[in-house]
Amino acid sequence: MKKFLTMLFIAILAVTMSACQTKEQGGAVVGGVLGGVLGNQVGQGSGRTAAIIAGTLLGAYVGSEMGRYMDENDNRKAESALEYNRDHQSSTWHNPNTGADVSATPTSTYQSASGENCREYQTTVTVNGKKEKAYGTACRQPNGSWKVIN
C-alpha cells in the first residue's frame, strides 16, 4: 500500500503541473489506473476482476482527494525542500487555499549511477485531521529542476 500511495502522490504532482484538467480529475485518473494495476497484482482467479474494479474505484477516490489539496505553490515548496534542506530536515507549511498542512522531508541524498544528484523524500498532507504520507525519489535535472523518478 505504501508503494501505491507513493506512486499515486508522485503521479498527482506531475498531473498538477498540467493545465489540461483539474487537480481532482488528474488525480482520479492516475489513481484509478494505479489502483487497477494494484488490484491486478493482489487478485487471483475469478477474484482478480473484482480486485481490479475495487482497486480502480479506491484509487480514483484517493487520487482525487490528494489532488484536491495540492497546488502549484505546494509543488514549489516541496521542490525547495529537495533543493535546500538537509536530510531529515522538514519544511512545513499551511495552504490557506485548500486548508492542507503539508510537510516535505528529504530522507537520503545520493548520486545515481548516471551521475545525477538524487534524494529520497517523504511528503505528508493533513486535511481535517486525516493524514496521508507518500514516499519517493527525485533527481536533479541538468536545468536545475527536480524530476520524480519513483
UniProtKB/TrEMBL annotation:
The keyword Thylakoid does not apply. It is found in: Membrane. This is Surface antigen domain-containing protein. Residues 90-115 have a biased composition (Polar residues). It comes from the Bacteria. Keywords: Membrane, Signal. Residues 84-115 are annotated as: Disordered. Residues 48-149 form the Surface antigen domain. Its main location: membrane. Residues 1-19 form the signal peptide. It comes from Ferrigenium kumadai. GO terms for cellular component: membrane. The keyword Membrane applies. Pfam families: 17kDa_Anti_2. InterPro entries: Anti_2, Bact_OM_lipoprot/Surf_antigen, Surface_antigen_Rickettsia.
